[in-house]
Write a structure and sequence with these properties.
Blueprint lengths: L1 H16 L3 H8 L1 H13 L3 E6 L5 E6 L2 H9 L4 H10 L5 E5 L5 H10 L4 E5 L3 H11 L5 E4 L2 E2 L4 E5 L2 E6 L3 H11 L8
Parallel strand pairs: 3-4, 4-5, 6-8
Antiparallel strand pairs: 1-2, 7-8
Length: 187
């Protein structure tokens, strides 16, 4: 029954996303609309809480594009979200590469349950900090401040040093089994 409820919540969020503009304004409310628009107009980063279509909430940073969609609709990327809803099962292990603020990490955490695991990778310090806050309460999530790569090492681009993580199959099993959701990656 829970799966059917989640499907209905997803369909409702997609309908809001594709609704007529004037109706969207009425559905999301003028305050939420103006908050999003003012953040974009003034160009100032504003942290807000987005209510997610599958329940719960997460911190987002307006006017960033993904955050705006999450803030207004509680949904991001309907195609990938739809695939995630069909693919995620109790007990699965999920690797969320480029986890950003944790939308898919939160969704998969719900789908795989306490018997599943999610390993979330994001190399950007400011983004990783929001990911940590959004997922701190989840015991089935391991967060790593690294980028996925074919080789271990580091990369410096535009003044940002990024640690690269190249998982070997055995290492992944050890990380998944031994991390227990407590590992906060940094090098």
């Amino acid at each position: 029954m829970a799966g059917r409820d989640l499907d209905n919540q997803f369909r409702g969020a997609v309908e809001r996303l594709h609704d007529f503009p004037i109706r969207k304004l009425r559905l999301i409310g003028p305050r939420r609309f103006l908050t999003r628009e003012c953040a974009g107009f003034f160009g100032s980063a504003t942290e807000r809480e987005a209510e997610l279509f599958f329940g719960g909430a997460m911190s987002v940073v307006l006017p960033e594009m993904i955050s705006c969609q999450l803030y207004v609709y509680g949904l991001f990327d309907e195609l990938v979200t739809g695939m995630a809803l069909r693919a995620g099962r109790q007990g699965d292990v999920v690797l969320d590469v480029g986890a950003h603020f944790g939308y898919f990490t939160l969704l998969f955490s719900r789908l795989v349950g306490k018997s599943g695991r999610i390993v979330s990778l994001d190399p950007t310090p400011s983004t990783f900090a929001v990911l940590q806050r959004n997922t701190a309460h989840l015991s089935n999530v391991t967060r790593l401040k690294v980028a996925a790569s074919r080789h271990n090492g580091s990369l410096t681009d535009i003044g940002l040093r990024v640690d690269l993580f190249c998982p070997e199959y055995d290492q992944c099993l050890v990380a998944f089994a031994g991390a227990g959701g407590a590992t906060e990656g940094s090098s």
